[in-house]
Fold this sequence. Notes:
two-stranded antiparallel sheet; 2 strands; mainly alpha; about 75% helix
Amino acid sequence: MTYHFKQWLVSLKHYVQMCLFISGPDRLPGGFHSILISLFFYCLIGFSLVDEQHNYSTIIAQIAIELSLLAGFIYTGLRWKNMLTRLTQSFSALLGINLVISAVSIPVYQALIEEYGSVGDGEINRNLLNATLLILFWNLSVMSLVLKQALDINTLLAAMISFNYFMVYQFLIVWLF
């Protein structure tokens, strides 16, 4: 078990480096255990969002939808490019970058909400909006980098796939929840 945890720590280092645009999915260890450990920690981070409006089942359902979409998008792309051998590393990279970005963005966003709250009359504070857009741009940029390297495609196509993933995910979340 300690071997798998050490492998995950190596993966975590690369997840952070991918979020800083330094590393790529090809540098990840190929083990399936890294995916399982990342999934465990991703769920723990998701559970920090439990409140009056979101219960555990809602959070688990949203995580399941997100990961199913990620797996579907990367599987379809890798199958299209005949590179299915990259599936484990690519999915691990996508899950890992979401883990790191969530671990950074959730506390930052919660601190901003405590600091600024809402303006009133249903308006959102400009600082909250700017932070949300910055985090969204960061997430889509990192996802584009991973898709570009995993699928061996150009940057524009990777960005379009990332944006389409985001739109499909948002439509599903709004529609289902």
